[in-house]
Design brief:
single chain; 292 residues; alpha/beta; 5-stranded mixed β-sheet; two-stranded antiparallel ribbon; 13 helices; 7 strands; 11% strand; globular
Length: 292
C-alpha cells in the first residue's frame, strides 16, 4: 500500500510549499539552475491534457515583462529534465521566446512526483471538470486515499470531491462535451439522472442544439423519470440575415472543398461546421485540401 504521507499542508501558496522541507532542500534552495528550455520536457503522465491558449498567451506576456518568478520543479533524467511541476510556465516560456528557464532539480519518488503534479494542477489553475474528477480518482487509487483525505489534500469540501467523482459515471461522449465546455457542470450533474447511455447522449445533444438552461434540463429529466412525456423545447430562431450569410458561406465552402458543407449555428456567435464525405479516399482528399 502506498504511504499516505507526503506533501505539507497549505498547498498553492508558492512553489516552495510543494517541496518537503529537509536539510538537503534548504541547503539547495538558493541554487536554482538556469537550463536550456529545449532540455526540459513535460511528464507524459501529468493530469492536465488541455491548456487554454489565451491563458498561456497572457502568462507568456507576463513572463516577457517579469521573467519566470517561480522555478519549475524538475527531475534529472540524464539527457533531459522532466517537469514535475510547472508545465504551464514552461509552455508559456516557450511562447515568450525564452532560451533558458529557472529550475529546481530534485530526486522524487514516484508518489511524490505524481502528487506534486496533481495538486499543483488543482491548486494553481482550474482543471476542466473531467480532468479534476480523474485527478481525484488517481489520488484515491494510486495513493490509497479516502475521499475525506483527498478533500483535505486539495483544500476542497468532501461533497465537492464526491460530486466531481460522480461525473465519471457519465457516458464518454458526454464527458467529452463537458471537457470541451459545450455543456456546463450543472447540465452534466442533471444528466446523471438518466441511466441509459443512449438516452443520456441524446439528451446532451438536445442541450446543445436547443441551448437549454440547467433548469430546463432538470425539469425535462424529472418529467422523464416521472414517466411523462418530455416536451421538446423550442429551438431559438436565428436572425434571418445570419441564416442568409451562413447559406452563402456553405456554398462557397462547397465549391472550395468539393463536397457538401453545413453550418449548424447554436446562436449568433457559436456553432459547428459539418463536412460530408462518402468514402475513405474522399476523406483523405478533404483532409489534404484543408491542410494544404
Amino acid at each position: 500500500m502506498a504511504k499516505k504521507g507526503g506533501l505539507n499542508k497549505g498547498l498553492g501558496k508558492g512553489i516552495n510549499v510543494l517541496i518537503p522541507e529537509t536539510k538537503e532542500t534548504v541547503e539547495a534552495s538558493d541554487g536554482i539552475l538556469e537550463v536550456d528550455i529545449n532540455k526540459v520536457e513535460p511528464d507524459k503522465n501529468q493530469p492536465r491534457k488541455h491548456f487554454d491558449e489565451d491563458e498561456l498567451a497572457a502568462l507568456a506576456d507576463s513572463i516577457k515583462q517579469h521573467g519566470v518568478i517561480d522555478p519549475l520543479l524538475v527531475q534529472d533524467k540524464g539527457d533531459y529534465y522532466e517537469i514535475v511541476g510547472g508545465e504551464r510556465r514552461w509552455r508559456a516560456s516557450k511562447m515568450a521566446g525564452l532560451k533558458k528557464v529557472p529550475v529546481y532539480v530534485r530526486e522524487y519518488t514516484d508518489q511524490e512526483k505524481l502528487e506534486i503534479s496533481l495538486i499543483e494542477n488543482i491548486q494553481r489553475v482550474d482543471l476542466d471538470p473531467i480532468e479534476e474528477a480523474t485527478t481525484y480518482k488517481r489520488l484515491m487509487e494510486e495513493f490509497s486515499l479516502t475521499q475525506d483525505e483527498v478533500a483535505d489534500r486539495v483544500s476542497k469540501s468532501r461533497p465537492a470531491v464526491t460530486n466531481a467523482l460522480r461525473l465519471l459515471n457519465l457516458a464518454p461522449e458526454v464527458q467529452d462535451m463537458l471537457s470541451e465546455g459545450i455543456i456546463k457542470p450543472g447540465h452534466a450533474r442533471a444528466l446523471l439522472g438518466i441511466k441509459d447511455t443512449e438516452s443520456q447522449i441524446d439528451f446532451a445533444n438536445s442541450i446543445i442544439d436547443n441551448q437549454l438552461s440547467v433548469r430546463e434540463v432538470e425539469k425535462g429529466i424529472k418529467k422523464m423519470q416521472d414517466g411523462g412525456p418530455t416536451p421538446a423545447p423550442k429551438k431559438k430562431e436565428l436572425d434571418p440575415q445570419l441564416t442568409a450569410v451562413y447559406s452563402e458561406i456553405e456554398e462557397n465552402l462547397k465549391e472550395s472543398i468539393g463536397t457538401k458543407v453545413k453550418i449548424v449555428a447554436k446562436d449568433s456567435d457559436k456553432g459547428k461546421i459539418e463536412i460530408e464525405y462518402y468514402n475513405r479516399d474522399e476523406l483523405e482528399r478533404i483532409v489534404d485540401k484543408l491542410q494544404g
